[in-house]
Specification:
Elements: E1 3-10, E2 13-20, H1 47-51, E3 58-66, H2 73-86, E4 93-100, H3 110-120, E5 129-137, E6 148-150, E7 152-155, E8 159-163, H4 164-171, H5 179-194, E9 227-229, H6 234-239, H7 248-256
Parallel strand pairs: 1-9, 2-6, 3-4, 3-5, 5-8
Antiparallel strand pairs: 1-2, 7-8
């Protein structure tokens, strides 16, 4: 299983946006009438399907959150705008939210998140609509260390987890960005990996891969960078409501794969 890290460095505290490639296990629950195979592929495998309207003209995003960890509306608004700006979905992008009880499994491994998805996901590809699952967890990643915390992980081709408790704790620190801005940055970054960035399903059109951090961009200030130092100015941009954006190299990659 390969790991992808996107880190935000604030003074000596490192918070990482981690994207984990995990194909998961084949679904064998015996449910009749739902073909889940297309949503159980590897990270980046559905990049062009998410970006273009060649096969799927709409997108249905199911956000399942643990009670008390619902995403902020401002973050969702920014997230949807980000998707609309980069994709061709003439029949629209729908985002639905549903609360569930805590699994009690925190801290989480990706394997445990895969099992939670199996238990809670209800939306899968259907006709010309592609489906995405996002889980807002009430705990932290088991990979967290003393000064290194995972905020989110993209796994499979249409699946990702956001570690809501970690984001909440980070936002409570002095001088940290507000919670909704952190959520928006994490959501956009992780979906960038579902789009196949950088070179995990979408072929780079130029040399902008970070050789030291697989799946990330080496262009300064790009949303897909592995590490951003808040002290050098990015924290001011986030505090001002300016979420990090994709750089032109990443945008050109998405355009070549069928996106905007």
């Amino acid at each position: 299983m390969s790991k992808y890290k996107y880190s935000l460095l604030l003074l000596i505290i490192l918070f990482s946006f981690s994207c984990t490639s995990d194909s998961g296990e084949n679904d064998d629950d015996g449910v009749v009438g739902i073909d889940k195979t297309a949503n159980l592929q590897g990270l980046g495998d559905s990049a062009s399907h998410l970006l273009s309207d060649a096969e799927f003209t709409s997108m249905n995003i199911e956000i399942v959150y643990v009670n008390g960890y619902a995403p902020n509306q401002a973050a969702l608004s920014n997230f949807k705008s980000f998707l609309e700006e980069r994709t061709f979905k003439p029949d629209g992008i729908n985002i639905s939210l549903r609360a569930v009880s805590s699994s009690g499994k925190a801290p989480f491994s990706i394997e445990e998140i895969v099992e939670i998805e199996k238990e809670t996901r209800t939306v899968y590809n259907a006709g010309d609509e592609i489906a995405v699952y996002i889980y807002f967890a009430d705990g932290k990643s088991e990979k967290d260390e003393e000064n290194k915390f995972t905020l989110g992980s993209a796994f499979r081709n249409t699946s990702m987890v956001i570690f809501g408790k970690t984001i909440e704790d980070f936002a409570a620190r002095p001088n940290a960005p507000i919670e909704s801005d952190i959520e928006a940055a994490v959501l956009n970054h992780e979906f960038g990996h579902l789009f196949g960035l950088v070179d995990i399903g979408t072929e780079p059109q130029s040399d902008h891969k970070d050789d030291d951090n697989e799946g990330h961009c080496n262009v300064p200030d790009c949303l897909m960078r592995a590490s951003i130092e808040f002290g050098s100015g990015i924290i001011d941009e986030i505090e001002g409501g300016r979420i990090p954006q994709l750089g032109m190299h990443c945008i050109r990659d998405l355009q070549a794969a069928g996106g905007r």
